[in-house]
Amino acid sequence: MNRSEKIIPYTQLKNTGRKVLTQVIPLRKPFTVLIEPSSLCNFRCLQCFQRLGGENYFTRTRMNMPMERFEKVLSQLKSWKGEKIKVLKLSLYGEPLMNPDFCEMVRLAVSSGVAERVETTSNVSLLDREKARALVEAGLDYLRVSIYGAQEENHRRVTNSSFTPARIRENLLVLLEERKKRNSLKPFVGAKMLDSFQEENARFLEFFRDAADELYLDKPHTWIKVAGSDFLGEYYGKEREKAERMMEEDDNSSHVCPMAFTTMAVRANGDVSPCCVDFIGGTNLGNMEEKTLQELWEGEEFLSFQKLQLERRKKENSSCAKCDICRSAHYTRDNIDSFSVEQLLEGRKKLNWKNGDKSHA
């Protein structure tokens, strides 16, 4: 990319070229496909499920995605005729740089041409000069960086790791240096931290101001609730009430989750879901080793899940029953509560897709 060209800041992407979702669903292809290079992470953050122990779906499936499976996912996306997907995200529930093949995965994803843009999210603690160079040369479009504190003590407390904010900043500066050497604006680096409601916000904005293209504060949220865990309380402590108040102010009163109609996530083990927050696996609808991504998207699996959402039966799903992400105006921009099962079935009929049972026909 010529440095005279401009690249859209990460926080503005959600407002660029938006369509009224109720007017375009069902989609021939998902807008967003996530591929999980790794479900492993070198951090154990207070507010994250990665610190959970015991026997559960997530702890049983922690792994790096094999390159053979990754290439198969790309092959399925390439053979899926039609317009490109809008975004291919190479990240999900783990730290992508834990996979030694990650940089090659980025190169293959970009060169495949299946998406309008390719991006990832990382804590960049494992980013070094060699990886930075590889990511720039691979053509990664966006790097979203999760920062957990600008003060060393707080960063260690939150991440339960030995990595410091200074190390994170140094790694980002190396990436910007490698990018500059190649006269490129990519990857665009957007670094974010959860709003702390304390002076930590100002320290973050000051300490990382020269290490990213864009800095912003994310609003508090909760992962799917798990018995015996209090992600919000662990992270915010005495500031919890402020976090809860902000979440209440952010409530858009939506009931139907639009991710069921726009998103496909492929986990490291091949399981496929329409959700980017379901680490417990309740929304898994199949596996790409058994059916292609297109077959799953057009088939009974996704249709049944979409009906469940439209009919306000989300409590019947073990993950959806414990999740309110669709009610966040910050994280979920589309309200499709007015869309009906009948409209969905009629739309699928026009696309020549099967409609499963005839109970709503």
Note the main attributes of this structure.
alpha/beta; 9 strands; 13 helices; 361 residues; globular
Distance between the termini: 50 Å
Q: Summarize model confidence as the mean pLDDT.
A: 92
* Annotation field: number of helices: 13
Class computed from helices, strands and strand pairing: alpha/beta
Widest beta sheet: strand line-up: 6-5-4-3-2-1-7-8-9
What does this 3D model show about the protein?
α7 (200-207) links the parallel β5 (188-194) and β6 (214-218). The longest helix has 17 residues, at 165-181. The protein is globular. It has 13 helices and nine strands. The protein is an alpha/beta fold. It has a nine-stranded mixed beta sheet. 33% of the residues lie in helices and 12% in strands.
Question: Can you lay out the helices and strands and say which pair or pack?
Answer:
Blueprint: E1 32-35, H1 57-60, H2 67-79, E2 85-89, H3 102-112, E3 115-122, H4 129-138, E4 142-147, H5 152-159, H6 165-181, E5 188-194, H7 200-207, E6 214-218, H8 231-236, H9 240-249, H10 259-262, E7 263-266, E8 271-273, E9 286-287, H11 293-298, H12 300-310, H13 341-350
Parallel strand pairs: 1-2, 1-7, 2-3, 3-4, 4-5, 5-6
Antiparallel strand pairs: 7-8, 8-9
